[in-house]
Specification:
α6 runs parallel beside α7. β1, α4 and β2 form a beta-alpha-beta unit. Among the domains are: about 110 residues, Alpha-D-Glucose-1,6-Bisphosphate, Chain A, domain 3 (3-Layer(aba) Sandwich), CATH 3.40.120; about 80 residues, 2-Layer Sandwich (TATA-Binding Protein). The chain starts with a helix and ends with a helix. Strands 9-13-12-11-10 form a 5-stranded antiparallel sheet, covered by helices on one side. Strands 2-1-3-4 form a 4-stranded mixed sheet, sandwiched between helices. Strands 6-5-7-8 form a 4-stranded mixed sheet, with helices on both faces. The protein is an alpha/beta fold. It has 12 helices and 13 strands.
Length: about 325
């Protein structure tokens, strides 16, 4: 897991302490571990409800885009160990990113083309540190990073029911998935450590964040794209349906996201306006303020790293989400 917030604060405070310098002969030792990826792959393959032989029997054709990040060290190996025919894009772990590294639809045009050209069963894209997973369907179209977690939820709950955990800014489609299996959704502050802590407390079988971050506790309590790939392929193998059809079974909602750049001194004043503007709606103040409407929500929160206020909206149509987002910002500024 990541450090708990209280531990992280203690560590960061310690950086202000004086440094005790030592000579060259007292600086400690360097250890090399060449088997980290191997152990990680073995742990993914040991997820108890994954039918590895069934996955291998399907001989999926998979295109993988690792953006020349760390995923190139592990993702192709994992996919081949699952019996896949693998077409690699940007899998040299040079750190020189082949395109804008976030695995968003707008950055994955080459992956879409490659899936279509190779008539692949699926395309996977990861970010440079391999914790976020995006999917391109066999149609050659991105399905949106929110669906990585939603598909994993559907598969895991079909094998191992239990309450699921995600953050306040992730899709309300998780509630639809949970209802299908008779379980609850617990919402936490943004940040995977908050999701991981709650999952551990509840012994939840699945959780994550809507930015493509899947947490599978049998592997560990942080977001993990390789584990996510194995889970999605396991779902494909169990259902024997194309990925586009499995996506179509999940209710579709649409996001709009924007931000307000403000003077740092004005951050709290703007946030104080939110309860006044949305006085007629239920509010969740776990992390910033989340406005709960009828088939829509608005999440308004201060960034933890820069003087901006983030505004996230989700509703049943793209047009409605964009309109609500713009109106919210107009009222706040």
């Amino acid at each position: 897991m990541f450090l708990f917030p209280e531990n992280a604060a203690s560590f960061l405070d310690s950086l202000n302490n004086p440094v005790d310098y030592v000579g060259w002969d007292g600086i400690g030792k360097l250890s090399v571990d060449p088997d980290g990826s191997k152990r990680h792959i073995e742990k993914v393959l040991q997820i108890p409800y994954l039918n590895i032989e069934k996955i291998k029997a399907k001989k999926f054709k998979v295109v993988i885009d690792c953006v020349n990040g760390a995923g190139g060290m592990i993702a192709p190996k994992l996919l081949r160990s699952l019996g896949c025919e693998v077409i690699e894009l940007n899998c040299e772990p040079t750190g020189i990113f082949a395109h804008t590294p976030e695995p968003l639809n707008k950055n994955l045009g080459d992956l879409e083309k490659a899936v279509a050209a190779h008539q692949a069963d699926i395309g996977f894209a990861v970010d440079p540190d391999v914790d976020r997973l995006s999917i391109v369907a066999e149609t050659g179209k991105c399905i949106g990073e929110e669906f990585s977690l939603l598909l994993a939820e559907k598969f895991i709950l079909s094998q191992k029911p239990g309450d699921i955990v995600t953050n306040l800014s992730s899709s309300m489609a998780s509630e639809d998935v949970a209802k299908e299996f008779g379980v609850k959704v617990y919402r936490t502050k943004v940040g995977e450590i908050n999701v991981g802590k709650k999952m551990k407390e509840l012994q939840s079988p699945v959780g994550g964040e809507g930015n493509g971050g899947i947490i599978c506790p049998e592997v560990h309590y942080t977001r993990d794209a390789p584990a996510g790939m194995a889970l999605i392929l396991g779902y494909l193998a169990e259902r024997n349906e194309p990925i586009s059809r499995l996506v179509a079974e999940i209710p579709h909602y649409y996001f709009a996201k924007d931000k307000i750049k403000v003077d740092p001194k004005e951050l709290d004043n703007i946030m104080a306006k939110v309860p006044e503007i949305f006085i007629d709606y239920p509010l969740n103040t776990t992390d910033g303020i989340k406005v709960l409407g009828d088939n829509f929500w608005i999440h308004i929160r201060k960034s933890g790293t820069e003087p901006i206020i983030r505004v996230y909206v989700e509703s049943e149509t793209a047009e409605k989400s964009e309109w609500i987002c713009k109106e919210t910002i107009r009222k706040l500024v």
